[in-house]
Amino acid sequence: MLSRSPISTLLALALVLASGLSARASEPAGGAEAYERVVSRYASGDVQAARKLLDEHPPGALGMSETLMDVILAAAGSGPAARRLVTASRAASSGHPWLLLAAARGLSGEHPILATSLASTLLDRTPSGRAARAFMIQTMKRAGAPKLAARTLADGFGEPEHRLRGVSRSVLRQLPLRREPLYEAERGWMWLDVGEHDRAAAIFERALAGARTPGVARCWAMAGACRAALHSGRREGAWDLLLELSETCGEHPMGEEHDVWLARMAFGRSERATFQRALDRVAARGKERLRLHGLETLRALPGSRGGLLVLTRALRERYAGWPFRDSLVSVASQLWTNFDKRRKHELAIEMLQPILDAGYVAPRERARGELAYHLARSYRRAGQRALAETTLIHAAYHHPLNWYGILALEDLRELSPYSAHATEHTLVPAVHGQGEDPDWAESAETLALRDRLSALASYGLVEGVLAEARAARVDLHAGRAAWVGRRLLELGAPREASKLAHRALEKRGVRSPMEGHVELWRLAYPRPFRASVERHAGAHGVDPRLTWAIMRIESRYATRARSHAGASGLLQLMPSTAKWLAQLRGEPEPDDLYDPLLNIDLGSDLLGRLHQKFVGDVPLMLVAYNAGSGRTRRWQREVRANSIGRWVDRLPIAQAKNYVRSVVSAWALYRYLDGSSIGLAPDGEDKAVAQNL
Questions:
Q1: What share of the chain has pLDDT > 90, as a percent?
Q2: How many other CB atoms are found less than 10 A from the CB of residue 359?
Q3: Looking at residue 328, what is its pLDDT?
Q4: 23-27, 29-33, 40-44: which range is least confident on average?
């Protein structure tokens, strides 16, 4: 049985920030909420639902421009709205190709030939031109003309880095064969994108045969052939291709990725000279890139002994054939579990201490601080109390917003209350983040980009904003990325805003808001449907930040998210659960769990019931939300542990364990961005929860 659960009660009152939809702050709450509801349904692709919501409100009630309304209506198949967009595009000073494309979408249902003809006038190498080509291919395929769709696709070849994604196999099969190496390389990549590795490998082989000398075509063909070989288990062939790629294609768009793969494979093959050269090339792009990819730590492993030697051998075997991702934390954690079960604490310490000394940071948020936490446990079990305390301080200080950093602070409070108190007070919450300056006045080109993005945002064209921002590489400039992220939030696209902010943070090697760029972190962790979340969470006694954390992990803020099991919407409710909740409330069975407001209402109700059942014990609430209350009660009886963290780590289902770690980490970050304490809850709350255990 569990002894107590101090970590479980981090529940505190939310400190309300200003609304992310600042442009609508002056409107009544109902109007702003209805506006967000409409644009989010449209941005998520649920255009018919967005049109229905528009019909439910009188003109002008939402404060929405006529052009934006026409964009939504045209997407839902309205011919008159599409024709009005054609007229509007003529008067638009910026963004008119995207308006014409929106008009073509509106005509495609009843007049596919007219729609494709209109889109064909936009074809070029610009983002709108590529989007028009993608639309034409989809429309032709739906009209039963895959050969014509394939011909349209082939005519746009020549830029593999901008290739269309998600093209169906039926269209790819109709692509004609050509003797042009670059054409064949791009065709191979498209087959690779749909998982046809063997077919892609054969195409890349033909492309390489036609491109004997270094150049764009050969580099793209080699990059694709290397990936296909790795997926098919052909290690030697992949190794040879990586070596040539690294030597001859350093300026390739995927150059850093290839150097990272080469470093890992060289480590796996004990090729020391090649390993060092690959590290040097990665470091030439910025020393923080070594830390970002976990390569700095690999330097400490060759020539190791004891537990570190066991880790080195396991990593070599992994990286020799699968260099795609950083596997150090997963391999080391598995080995630590084995050492711990066999009480080989010295081997565990020999393995983990050099990793900690090298400053390793796990790639996944939920795993950061995991190895330091395990190391502290090994020190404690080996009777080295002082080293255990030092290591817990390290984990709590460097990873306070992650699951294992929070656990470390809990263990530190038990081991040394003074050290825990001192550590907690060194963690300064981010109440006011320094704003990011977009600096659009840098050149005439950037000013034109700003005007174009502003126009597209005013039309509600999320696709256009994303495509133009991606082409302009706004993620390389923190201020511009933040500016675009705010526009995406206003357009009801929090998922896309979060992705853009994360890319901008990754470019800078920033892995925690404690390292700076707080405004980008607030965009990376948005608060969609703020009024609704705070209203329903408050009514059910739930921290609204916990609701957003669950929303992030469950759906990544996508209103139309749907799991393989059938869970739907922002908070991923099962239809049976939603029906049960409606019956308890005396309401009719919900018929649209994709409706964000309904989903938030029912999800908050469920969280409130779990809060009551488990007396505010957040990890238990989350396990029940993910795996069911029945399983949670059974695991409470069967899984032995002396703390909530160790109980979670011993759960028999990995999905439940990872779910709790991920949500708690996200919740801690939301609280940090609010300026709340990121330590423990008041003692009174701890005592209340202890009664439940």
A1: 67
A2: 10
A3: 94
A4: 23-27
Provide the pLDDT for residue 159.
Answer: 85
661-687 residue pLDDT tens? 999 999 999 999 988 766 434 333 433
Contacts (Cβ under 8 Å, ≥6 apart) of 658: 366
Separation between Cα atoms, residue 657 and residue 651, nearest integer Å: 6
| Residue 477: DSSP 8-state | S
Phi, psi (rounded to 5 degrees) for 32: -65, -40
Residue 386: count other Cβ atoms within 10 Å of its Cβ: 9
Alpha helix (H) ranges present in 293-369? 295-298, 306-319, 328-341, 345-357
Q: ∠ CA(248), CA(252), CA(253), 5° rounding?
A: 165
Other Cβ atoms less than 10 A from the Cβ of 444: the count is 8
Q: How confident is the model at residue 433 (pLDDT cuts 50, 70, 90)?
A: low
pLDDT at 175 over 60: yes
Q: Report if pTM > 0.85.
A: yes
Task: Show the DSSP H helices in 249-319 as ranges.
Answer: 255-268, 272-284, 288-292, 295-298, 306-319
**Would you tell me how many other CB atoms lie within 10 Å of the CB of residue 554?**
23
Give me the amino acid identity at 548: W
Q: Which burial class, exposed, middle or buried, applies to 568 when counting CB atoms under 10 A from its CB (0-12, 13-18, 19+)? A: buried
pLDDT, tens only, 276-307: 999 999 998 888 888 888 898 888 787 678 89
pLDDT bucket at 381, cuts 50 / 70 / 90:
very high
| Nearest-angstrom CA–CA distance, 160 and 137 | 17
Contact predicate 62/34, CB 8 Å: yes
Hey, is 568 helix, strand or coil? Answer: strand
Burial status of residue 41 (CB atoms within 10 A of its CB: 0-12, 13-18, 19 or more): buried
Cβ-based neighbour number of residue 246 at 10 Å: 21
Cα–Cα distances (Å) from 342 to 242, 339, 388, 682, in that order, read 40, 5, 19, 38
Distances (CA, A) of 458 to 43, 66, 119: 13, 10, 21
The mean pLDDT of 28-46, rounded to a whole number, is: 82
List strand residue ranges (DSSP E) for 110-211, in order.
none
**Which residues, listed in sequence order, are joined to residue 568 by a DSSP beta bridge?**
562, 573
Asked whether 174 and 152 are in contact (CB, 8 A), the reply is no
Type of residue numbered 297: T
Query: In a 3-state reduction of DSSP, which class is residue 192?
Result: helix
> Which domains, from first to last, does the chain contain?
6-15+530-690 (1.10.530.10), 22-163 (no CATH), 440-524 (1.25.40)
Cβ–Cβ < 8 Å for 315, 328: yes
- d(CA 645, CA 414) in angstroms, rounded, equals 13
CA distance 654 to 583: 32
Torsion-angle region of residue 482: left (phi > 0), alpha (psi -120 to 50) or beta? alpha
Burial of 682 (0-12, 13-18, 19+ CB in 10 A): exposed
What crossing angle do the helices spanning 127-142 and 462-471 adopt, rounded to 10°? 130
Q: 441 burial class (0-12, 13-18, 19+ CB within 10 angstroms)?
A: exposed
Length of the chain: 693
The pLDDT value recorded for residue 429 is 66
As a whole number of Å, the CA-based R_g of the chain is 27
Determine the Cα–Cα distance for residues 135 and 504; give it in Å rounded to an integer.
28
Whole-angstrom Cα distance, residue 478 to residue 501? 8
Whether the CB-CB separation of 468 and 452 falls below 8 Å is answered with yes
